[in-house]
Amino acid sequence: MTTPPTAAERPDDKSGQATAHPVGLTPPAAAERPDATPAAAAEHPGGASAIAERRAGLPAAEGPDGASVAVERLDAAPTTAERSHGASATTERPAGPSAAQRPGGRSVAAERRDASPGAAAEQAHGGSVAGEPAGPSAGGEGPDGASAFGERPGGPAVAAEGTGAVFPGAESLDALLGDPWRGGNPYGFAAAVARDGRAEFPHAFAERLESADLPLAHVPAGLGGTLTGLDDTLQRVRVAARRDAAVMPATLLSCAAVATVLAAGTPGQARAVADWVHAGRTVAFALSEEHAGSDVLANTCRLEEAPGGGFTLTGSKWLVGRGATAHAALVVARTAPRGPAAFTAVLLGPRELARVRRAAAHPVTGMRGIDFADLVFDGTPVPADAVVGAVGGGLAAAMRAQQLVRLLSTAACLATADTALRTALRFTRSRKAAGAAVAGTAHTERDIALAGAELMAADVLSLTAARYAQLSPGTFGLCSHVVKRVATRLTASSIVRSRGLLGARGFLADGPGSVVDKAQRDNAVVESIDTSPLGVLRAVAAQLPAYAEPPQDARTAPRDVRALCAYGEPLPALDHTALDLAARPRDRVLLGFAEHAATVAARLEECGAPRAAELVREVRAALAATVAAAADARRDRARAAGPEPLDLADSGCLLYAAAAAALAWWAHSGRGLYGERADGAGWLTAVLAVLLAHADGRDPRRVPAGDLAPAAEAVTRLDADPQLFTALPVRLSDAPGPA
Question: Could you report the per-residue pLDDT of 43-66, keeping only the tens digit for each?
Fold first, then answer.
């Protein structure tokens, strides 16, 4: 999609006050080092115990804000202008009951199973209509708000050895689903391949995930959902989607619509969408139109005032996820002739959607069984109070919400690449050539290392981005585009390498080839869902040149970027209203890396990793050159009209991922990531070398074997345990593969 003009910068940004340095300048040599000892993390509020308590009818743990914070906001409601533009980070919403507060202490999963379509409740448009339940409203900003960024005392606190899982919710969910390699497991790989062949919706799998409250993983705790940390949500979704990525749209597709309502809607609308999700219903998101493609400003579906009051919808929306089966829909339609303020969002409940014609679902190559259907409006009546935010503010609200959708979609990328690489690892260990395991050959080891390094690069960026969205939502815009581009590009490459390791069995319709083939096709769907690759690169290209100059606002300087990498640690409540479209140079990763790159390199030297230190310095220089070239290209009309800005944006995304990896190592140097010893930097060496090669247009297969080897060792070690291919341990239920 094209990116609309940016909104005004939020006046209430509470980011750090230290002096910032542009990516293109050399930061001070002296900088604070993360000398604090990582503290043991308590079990995550959204983890296994919380799920068990909900099933037992006991109170579930509240999010960091807790119910008491939400209760203080009972009397406040955003104005129309605030809802439209997200103008107030402190917009207060009334609190609804948490999962624990529901009648009789019943779990939300039980409520969904027992929900009756005929139950009358307050709906988004006022009044009571059968089948349109009301829900609790959104919780507000956490006690620290944006200023919580980097203010955790003593540096990042991650679960130390022997203190328990960092992501217990992901581990308990994977255990619930059982060993995916077992042929009779309905939540395993063989069952997923069979469903895919029949293009069958994963009904039983979706019901199993509903019983574990996964559909509530994107709903804030203040609305009775299970969202506490987006990094925790990302890991829970990954362990489910690694078995079958189709379960993401089957259970979590309401995320885009819900996020839009929470970013700009009224408390009543927030209550409605929350209860629809609680009841196991799907709220579709209808934005794209076939003739317009990624240019949403060319959309023609119209929302017009009706003579008797309210509006009418005329036109159609294309490839709406769950369009044929959704219970409600958020539709963005044109209300003025031109410009980004010419679109308005409306929330259609079951009553309105019953008057919409739903075209047959389009056949798709990946995520088969999920309906992508068109919605056709022919003067469809829409109540006046169905408008989300202000008239004319619909596109801005949807674009802000898409920042979260892009992030969460990376779970499917990571999950499919995990499955492909794990399949290839087990296959190569089971096959022999000339009396030796194929896994031991130099060619195989190199391809495993490359696939592993690409997956690790995407993983560490996604985890960092997940925390970023909650710590500083007002500056998250650039990161949301970068993580989508990096995750889709690198995981697609990783899967291709994994499939190549299967040889002739890679194209057979049964065995390991069928598992990897499905993973590859499902992965490809994610690249164009929510935001097209071209739209992503255009957005990055529009912002990158600004980092060639020092930021004018000292508030943008991060005081401690290590908080971005404190994976699994408690986070402030996610403030959807703070999401912003402003494109000023405020990105925490880029500015933080510029500030601390020299310190990270020095720390690597101290730890006996001179090669990794050298690569960090290369990333720093490459970023400076890239943003400078982007600024020069913008000033030259001929260059600006050509492909160079997008090419530079692509390289910039990869170098951004390298910067995030270096900061993650710095934050965890006392512990080690990907199963390495404390201070171990082998994984970082491999990731930086591969990312630099990609960014420079070089073939990563030419990266020295010594740089790559630690990546192969890391993924082999994690599969043998077995653990998810992620930075901190997430233990899996998989039976051991061949030695």
Answer: 333 333 332 333 333 223 223 222
Please give the pLDDT value at position 703: 98
Read off the pLDDT band of 72 (50, 70, 90): very low
Strands 128-130, 328-334: parallel, antiparallel or unpaired by DSSP?
Answer: unpaired
Dihedral pair phi/psi, residue 445, rounded to 5°: -60, -40
Half-sphere exposure of 545 (CA within 13 A, CB side): 16
H or E segment and range at residue 183:
none
Strand partners, 375: 317, 358
Q: What are phi and psi of 367, to 5 degrees?
A: 50, 45
CB 33 within 8 A of CB 605: no
Main-chain phi, psi angles of 432, to 5 degrees: -125, 145
CA distances for 558 relative to 11, 510, 563, angstroms: 17, 51, 10
Counting Cα atoms < 13 Å in the Cβ hemisphere of 307 gives: 0
Q: What is the pLDDT of residues 521-538, one digit of tens each?
A: 999 999 988 888 999 999
Q: Rounded to an integer, what distance in angstroms lies between the CA atom of residue 484 and that of residue 412? A: 11
Q: Where are the beta strands (DSSP E) in 369-465?
A: 372-382, 387-388, 432-433, 436-437
Cα 171-172-176 angle, rounded to 5 deg: 120
Q: Which of 77-86, 143-152, 248-257, 707-716 shows the lowest per-residue confidence on average (mean pLDDT)?
A: 143-152
Q: What is the DSSP string of 55-80?
A: HTTPPPPP-SSHHHHHHTTTT----H
Query: What is the 3 state secondary structure string of 87-98?
Result: CCCCCCCCCCCC
- CA 136 → CA 80, 93, 117, 221, 420, distances in Å? 20, 10, 18, 10, 40
Are the beta carbons of 661 and 459 closer than 8 angstroms?
no
DSSP helix/strand/coil, 346: strand
The tokens 């807790």 sit on which residue?
66
Alpha carbons 727 and 676: distance in angstroms, whole number: 10
CB count in 10 Å sphere of residue 621: 13
3-class DSSP state of 333: strand
Report how far residue 528's alpha carbon sits from residue 535's, in angstroms, rounded to the nearest whole number.
Answer: 9
**Please, where are the H alpha helices in 327-393?**
350-353
Instruction: State CA 693 to chain mean position distance.
Output: 25
pLDDT computed for residue 28 by the predictor? 34
Q: Residue count of the chain, please give it.
A: 739
Of the chain, the percentage scoring pLDDT greater than 90 comes to: 70
pLDDT of res. 401: 98
Average pLDDT of the residues of the chain: 81
Question: Count of CB atoms within 10 A of residue 172's CB?
Answer: 20
CB 444 within 8 A of CB 708: no
- How far is the C-alpha of 718 from the C-alpha of 438, rounded, in Å? 19
DSSP type of residue 328: E
d(CA 281, CA 295): 30
Q: Quote the pTM value.
A: 0.80
Burial class (CB in 10 A: 0-12, 13-18, 19+), 212: buried
What DSSP string runs through 27-62?
Answer: PPS------SPPPPPPPPTTSHHHHHHHHTTPPPPP
Structure tokens at 265: 């809607």
Residue 220 forms beta bridges with which residues?
227
Question: Is 604 in contact with 615 (CB distance < 8 Å)?
Answer: no
Q: Are 185 and 178 in contact (CB under 8 A)?
A: yes
Q: Are 170 and 235 in contact (CB under 8 A)?
A: yes
User: pLDDT of 333-392, one tens digit each?
Assistant: 999 999 889 999 999 999 999 999 999 999 999 999 999 999 999 999 999 999 999 999
Is residue 252 over pLDDT 80? yes
How many helices (H) does the chain have, and how many strands (E)?
A: 23, 12
With beta carbons less than 8 A apart as the criterion, state whether 301 and 331 touch: yes
